[in-house]
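If you are new to this repository, start here. Below is one unmodified record pulled from the training split, so you can see the exact layout before writing a loader.
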Amino acid sequence: MTRPVYGLAVAMVIGTIALTLHGCSPRDDGPITAAIAKQVARPFRWFRKPTVDDDDIQPMVRRFYKIRGNRPAWTHMNGPTSNAQELLEELSEAPSSGLLPQDYDFDSLARKSDDLPKALPGADVARARALAALDVSLTRNFLKYATHRASGQVNPLQLPADWHIKPRQIDAVKLLADAVEHDWVREALDSLDPADPQYRELRDALVRYRKIEHDGGWPAVPGGGTLKRGSRGPAVLALQQRLIATGDMGSGASGRFDPATEAAVKTFQSRYGFDPDGIVGPAVLEQLNQPVSLRIRQIELNLERRRWVPDSLQRGRLIEVNIPSFDLAVREGDRKVLGMRVVVGKQFSPTPIFSDEISYLVFNPYWNVPSKIAGEEILADVQKDPDYLQKNHMRLFDGEGKDAREVDPSEVHWDGMTPEEFKYAVRQDPGPENAVGHVKFMCPNQFDVYLHDTPATHLFSAEERGFSHGCIRVEQPKQLAEYLLRGKQDWDDMRIAAAMDTSTNLTVTIPEPMPVHVVYWTAFVNDQGLVQFRDDIYGLDSLLDRALRSRRPGI
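And here is the target side for that same chain:
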């Protein structure tokens, strides 16, 4: 995606404004105030497809001017104010937040500032109308830019995706009123950025990757064979140049795959979610050869998502499960105290993005098989093997309630039964074969999604771990249980181990509910300060990208 260069326009606009800056006197306001009253009363017509845009912003524009009695906020009869200059400077820096000046009518503001009628006798009416139009446009774009920086350009709850975290909210009108009253436009806008350190680190990464793009990007690494220690030739030279471009390797491209090159490949692999073996095979080569523009866009999309998440969800003790990186982190403030791999939902049974609290644990849980799984999978298994339920310690019931009656599987006519005809409930007893393992971490939610142990521990060795029906399987259930039960009387490590070694069903509340946030970051910065990229496994990057581009024809 190409981006226009705004430096010349910025200089032109700011230069024009600088020539007209004067203090604002009440006697200057009258003609502009009258013109603003007429302009904000007109219906607003906008021809782009709206996301969180002008159609949403216009009611705020009216509210702002109603509070002010339609007095101008950015202009007086001598021209734009210093606050207007500061806002234009801020809009020119929108790319540093992954936003575009053109979305805030930067070029139009430049023209309106240049084309103001001269302050001549008899020209007051025309000048007042032009200044009013500029004032209203500056107000609209402050409110839009503030909203975008605070809570994003897209309302995630309106996307066709399983995102169920309510976005950040601000009172942009009050913010604007305070900003123009106290002359702190820049400070007001900067205060809107998420407090999450990840946001700032991703913004810094965006600057670095834009510089790489400005300097010509990185070279493609030729395919045709595996590159590893001992390889040499043009392909290795291109590989080294590619790794140097992103800082995975220092200087010294020689065309020989030496220990320094192997270490750099391992760093690159760890940044992209591969097990670092230092060998460049087809999958690693594919990631190496993705263009820098794709990585820039990936960072921009993740900055947008970060703006959706309230600051309150980033503070204190919490568990974060990042779906694209297939991992879980327990954090205390900025410190990661426990981490592990997880298995998440398949592409066609995705894990939803939501926030809740773990309030209790269940040792040796029963598994109440979801009706969809029972009808589509268990039924087929029983039709192949009539003893399937017994072999897997599963029982059949005529319903899901407490009063449901157990049914003898031998009395059921399985042959020819379709999933739609399967009306039974299936429950698996506690034990080593139980699908949810020896412990389940309960965060009651509308999706019936929870964290749990699993007997299928071999799945954690896979690099891509989208295998479940939506729930989250954790690699180290005992360690997570120990952390959550810290401080609970009589629940030391030995008792937890003993509880998991039995088949006795037992529910235990935890001393303090633990927030758990299931999120979707495909670009982030790890605890070592290294920029990480992951595949868009559910297509949510593509979905967001389309939503943003739909209102920018030709981009």
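Two things worth knowing about this chain: The radius of gyration is 30 Å. DSSP finds 18 helices and 17 strands in the chain.
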